[in-house]
Amino acid sequence: MASAQKEVQKEIKLNDEQNNQFNLITRSLQEVLGADIIKQKLSTGEQLKCYWGTAPTGRPHVGYFVPLVKIADFLRAGVEVKVLFADIHAFLDNLKAPFELVQDRVKYYTKLLRSIFISLDVPVDKLIFVVGSSYQLTPQYSMDNYRLAAMTTEHDAKKAGAEVVKQVSSPLLSGMLYPGLQALDEEYLKCDFQFGGVDQRKIFVMAESILPKLGYAKRAHLMNAMVPGLAGGKMSSSDPNSKIDFLDSAADVKKKIKLAFCEEGNIEENGLLAFLKAVVFPIASFKQQSKGASPFAAAAESAQALFSVTRPDKFGGSLHYTEYEKLEHDFATKAVHPGDLKKAVEEAINTLLEPIRKDFESDEEFKAVEKAAYPPPMDPAAAAKEAKKAKNEAKKNKAKASAATFQQQSIDSVAEQVDKIDIPKQ
């Protein structure tokens, strides 16, 4: 027993290439649970597999760039990445959307995410899209779900989903199923590690505990830091002022950035700085290495700088940055004004969104899928008119049905009276 424990604790040696892969996979993360699981797989030369899931409910916003930039690291490191469109989870999460509408949104997410990865020059040959209902409705998965339910308390289920499932005074049972389903997905997607935000940590810890009890392997878990929204809190699909959609126009971006919280010298809960750190600088660095220039730096400086804050000479002239930390320092010491930072972030976001907008505008299928997934809301006056029309139609149909019934009853009555007549035989 002691020798077995020593064997488990033995350091896993990686060659230079494998170390580079591991560093690329784990860089810039807030937390890694089970790093040795990843190292062990890399050391054997086997295909490393990751799973990241998203529930296709609201419109994806630029906050999605945060996990997608990290997933780009996984793909560049040769990891096979399965993106799970969790349609069952989306339906269960406090019934945010009808199941039929969720299916249309799965199609939209598929088109959009592929467009984003291509715009980032990410290799997509090991990118796989999976729909949750393709396996979550099978007898084996259902049986495992019952087995999991038999060994999970209500307290543990609620605790695991506390950060990601909407908490209400009288919670639905569906919200408590959510964390267990996510744990089971690791086995059914045959991944080596699951990736998510640090808000998923309690679900990840539950998965590490519950899967071995079901006879399945424990997986590693990689977590990104949470990035605040434009208003300073969590970026949310339900708050239009805290997010920028991938298909927002340049004018929309400008308007939303203008409303963003950005107090002079304040680097805490600053969504603009957080976005630059998590998204813009990593993309700029990759583009500079692969293309020879950063798209977020002034043209004359793009071969060296990653990001530029352009401003007139009378306000000190433009500033060019080769690292995020210097920009954060300059903002903290008030060397960069909030207005200048907002303008620079607006330009960077529009640079990121432009190829995605072009892809959307040139693809009729993309447009049709988007319209089905997020049908435009009906004008209140038009909705009232439609409701009145439907009510009148219902009244007409009811009147027709009543008339037809009366007519049939009359015919039946006459027939009955005819039957009662004793016709003399000739």
Biggest sheet layout = 6 strands, mixed
Helical residue percent band: 40-55%
What class do helices, strands and sheet pairing give?
A: alpha/beta
Kindly report the oligomeric state of this protein.
single chain
Report, as a whole number of angstroms, the end-to-end distance: 112 Å
- Provide the residue-averaged pLDDT: 87
N-to-C SSE string, H for helix and E for strand: HHEHEHEHHEHHHEHEHHEEHHHH
Rg value: 29 Å
What characteristics describe this protein?
6-stranded mixed beta sheet, globular, 426 residues, 16 helices, nucleus, Tyrosyl-Transfer RNA Synthetase, alpha/beta, disordered N terminus, ATP binding, Rossmann fold, 2 domains
Can you put this structure into words, describing what you see?
- It is a single chain.
- This protein is of the alpha/beta class.
- It has two domains: 12-224, 3-Layer(aba) Sandwich (Rossmann fold); 240-370, Tyrosyl-Transfer RNA Synthetase (Orthogonal Bundle).
- 54% of the residues lie in helices and 8% in strands.
- It has 16 helices and eight strands.
- The strands form two sheets. It has a six-stranded mixed sheet, sandwiched between helices. The protein has a two-stranded antiparallel ribbon with strand order 7-8.
- Helix 9 (173-188) crosses helix 10 (201-213) and helix 11 packs antiparallel against helix 14 (338-361).
- The model is unreliable at 1-7 (pLDDT under 50).
